[in-house]
C-alpha cells in the first residue's frame, strides 16, 4: 500500500511541532541522545485501506517500550494466558516505567504489569527459543509478520548502547531472579530485551502494526489473522491502562485510545476498527512520552472523535 501525504495532517504536525521545544530527548541510552528534538512525523493507516502521512514518515526509530506490546503478544502465543499472568500482573502502577519500588512491596512478588520495565523483562524471559539468537530471531520474525513479512531490522548500535547503561534494568532482573520470577543468566536476558527494544521501523510501519491490533489481530490488507483475537484484545487493554506509563490515566481522559509509547519518541495507536497510528517525535516530557506526538493525538482525537470512551 502506498502512503499519501495529507494536507490537514501536515497542518496538525506544524501546530504540534513547537511543543517539542519544552521537552528533552532521552539520553540515558546514549545512542538515543543523538535524535533531533524537532523531528516529527505521523502516519495513519486507515482500516478502509488508505494511508496518510505528514512529516518525514520514512525516518526510522527504535521501538523501545512499544516493543513490550509485541513481546507480550508473542509470549501469550508461546505460553498461554495462565502461565504469562502467573509471572506478571495486570494492574497499572502510578510509578515511572523503570521503578523498582512496587516489586519490593507487592506480595507475592511479581511485576505489576507487562508495560513497565520489570514486567517487560519478565515477559521477554518467557519467549521460547533455545538461545539468545533464536529468541531474537523469533521476535524479529514475529514483528515482521505484522508487516506482511517485510524485513525488520534491529539497530545493534542502540542495543549495545543500552546494554552498556542498563544497570537499572539489571537491578530489576537480579531482584526478580532472587524472587524466582526469572531464572538463568541476566546478561542473556538483557541482550534479548535490548535487541527487542532496538527493533526499528518508520511511522508508516508502526501505523500498520497498530492497524493489525485495531482490527483484532487481522492484517487489514491480506485479511490474515496474525495474532489471536484474544491476544490482540489483551494487548489493547494494557495499552489503555498502562501504555503511556504513569500518564495513562490523563491520556485516557484527554485522548482515549489504546496507545503505547517508547523513549525513542515513538507512539503506536490502535483505534478499534478504524485506524493504526504511528508517530515519531523524540522530544519527551518528564514521564518519557513524546510531547508533540501526544499533542497530535490530542488534536486528532478531538477532530475525529476517536476516544473509545
Ligand atoms: N529500552 C528502554 C528501557 O528499558 C525502554 C523504556 C521505554 O521506552 N520507556 O529503559
Summarize the structure in words.
A hairpin with a 3-residue loop joins strand 8 (266-271) and strand 9. It is globular and about 55 Å long. It has 309 residues and is an alpha+beta fold. Strands 1-3-2-9-8-7 form a six-stranded mixed beta sheet. Strands 4-6-5 form a three-stranded antiparallel beta sheet. Helix content is 45%, strand content 11%. It is built from 13 helices and nine strands. 52% of the residues are buried. The chain binds glutamine.
Strand content: 5-15%
| Biggest β-sheet: strands ordered side by side in the sheet | 1-3-2-9-8-7
> How many individual domains?
2
Ligand species: glutamine
Structural class: alpha+beta
Task: Give me the CATH fold name of the largest domain.
Answer: Beta-lactamase
Largest sheet: 6 strands, mixed
Total beta-strand segments: 9
CATH superfamily of the largest domain: DD-peptidase/beta-lactamase superfamily
Count of separate DSSP helical elements: 13
CATH class of the largest domain: Alpha Beta
Low-pLDDT residue spans: none
Distance between the termini: 31 Å
Please tell me the overall pLDDT.
95
CATH architecture of the largest domain: 3-Layer(aba) Sandwich
Shape: globular
Helix content range: 40-55%
Q: Give the SSE order as H and E letters.
A: EHEEEHHHHHEHHHEHHHEEEH
Mind telling me the C-alpha Rg? 18 Å
Amino acid at each position: 500500500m502506498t502512503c499519501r501525504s495529507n494536507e490537514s495532517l501536515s497542518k496538525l504536525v506544524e501546530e504540534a511541532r513547537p511543543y517539542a521545544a519544552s521537552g528533552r530527548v532521552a539520553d540515558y541510552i546514549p545512542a538515543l541522545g543523538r535524535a533531533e528534538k524537532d523531528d516529527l512525523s505521523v502516519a495513519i493507516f486507515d482500516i478502509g485501506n488508505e494511508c496518510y502521512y505528514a512529516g518525514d514518515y520514512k525516518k526510522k526509530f527504535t521501538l523501545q517500550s512499544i516493543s513490550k506490546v509485541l513481546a507480550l503478544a508473542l509470549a501469550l502465543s508461546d505460553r498461554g494466558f495462565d502461565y504469562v499472568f502467573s509471572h506478571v500482573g495486570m494492574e497499572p502502577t502510578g510509578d515511572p516505567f523503570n521503578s523498582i519500588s512496587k516489586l519490593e512491596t507487592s506480595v507475592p512478588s511479581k511485576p505489576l504489569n507487562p508495560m513497565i520495565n520489570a514486567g517487560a523483562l519478565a515477559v521477554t524471559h518467557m519467549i521460547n527459543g533455545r538461545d539468545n539468537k533464536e529468541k531474537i530471531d523469533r521476535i524479529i520474525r514475529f514483528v515482521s509478520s505484522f508487516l506482511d513479512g517485510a524485513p525488520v531490522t534491529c539497530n545493534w548500535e542502540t542495543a549495545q548502547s543500552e546494554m552498556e547503561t542498563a544497570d537499572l534494568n539489571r537491578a530489576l532482573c537480579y531482584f526478580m531472579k532472587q524472587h524466582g520470577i526469572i531464572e538463568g543468566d541476566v546478561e542473556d536476558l538483557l541482550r534479548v530485551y535490548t535487541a527487542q527494544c532496538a527493533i526499528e521501523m518508520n511511522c508508516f510501519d508502526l501505523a500498520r502494526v497498530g492497524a493489525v491490533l485495531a482490527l483484532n489481530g487481522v492484517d487489514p490488507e491480506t485479511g490474515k489473522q496474525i495474532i489471536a483475537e484474544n491476544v490482540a484484545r489483551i494487548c489493547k487493554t494494557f495499552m489503555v491502562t498502562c501504555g503511556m506509563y504513569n500518564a495513562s490515566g490523563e491520556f485516557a481522559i484527554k485522548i482515549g485510545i489504546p496507545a503505547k509509547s517508547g523513549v525513542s519518541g515513538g507512539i503506536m495507536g490502535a483505534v478499534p476498527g478504524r485506524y493504526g497510528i504511528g508517530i515519531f517525535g523524540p522530544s519527551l516530557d518528564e514521564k518519557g512520552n513524546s510531547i508533540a506526538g501526544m499533542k497530535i493525538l490530542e488534536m486528532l482525537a478531538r477532530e475525529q472523535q476517536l476516544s473509545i470512551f
